[in-house]
Amino acid sequence: MPIDEPAPNCALCPRLAEFRRVNKKAWPQWHNAPVPSFGPVNASLLIVGLAPGLRGANRTGRPFTGDYAGDLLYPTIAEFGFGEGKFEARPDDGFQMTDCRITNAVRCVPPENKPTTAEINSCNPFLTAEIKGQKNLRAILALGLIAHKAVLRSLGLVAARYAFGHGAMHELPGGLLLADSYHCSRYNTNTGRLTEEMFHAVFAELRERLVK
Questions:
Q1: Which own/partner pairs from 1-4 qualify as long-range (CB within 8 Å, at least 24 positions apart)?
Q2: pTM of the model
Q3: 32, 86, 99, 119: which has the highest count of C-beta atoms within 10 A?
Q4: What are the residue ranges spanned by the domains of the chain?
């Protein structure tokens, strides 16, 4: 059964709706709408990012596609057996998600890549629907602190009990695993806060746990 996605003209967040309108006027050929999740609903792994990038997913309509973060994320997904194909940073590149689905805590591009707390909370029901709709879900990978907190909120759990930390693995009530990683943004990789080896280590542990 399809999982509910925000409407193309979603107006839950007035600031984001106005930002979409301005971008649509400037770049009418871009997606400029809430970005839908990508991947099979029967996947065992859900990856949760922050929000679409202006010239990334907001342009292409596919999460992490068209900006630097996807250049690290998608090859890593393929390397650890969660997807297959060659990622070419465009939605028609043929890349297939096999055991992974990707979504964002906030579905619309925010100005300066900074959603407000109210916007994160307004979009949280869509993340809740994602998690509830994936009947084979066993693990969630949160890319960054905001995604980490959004996942816990969607599950009705207290964030203070599950501290965010790169590489942390949290066993949640009901058997679901929440894994944390620094976001694979250009800023984090350029500053050395996140290296490819660090990112791969998180995926390696997820793969090991999911084959058990």
A1: 1/41, 1/133, 2/41, 3/37, 3/41, 3/129, 3/130, 3/133, 3/134, 4/126, 4/129, 4/133
A2: 0.96
A3: 32
A4: 14-210
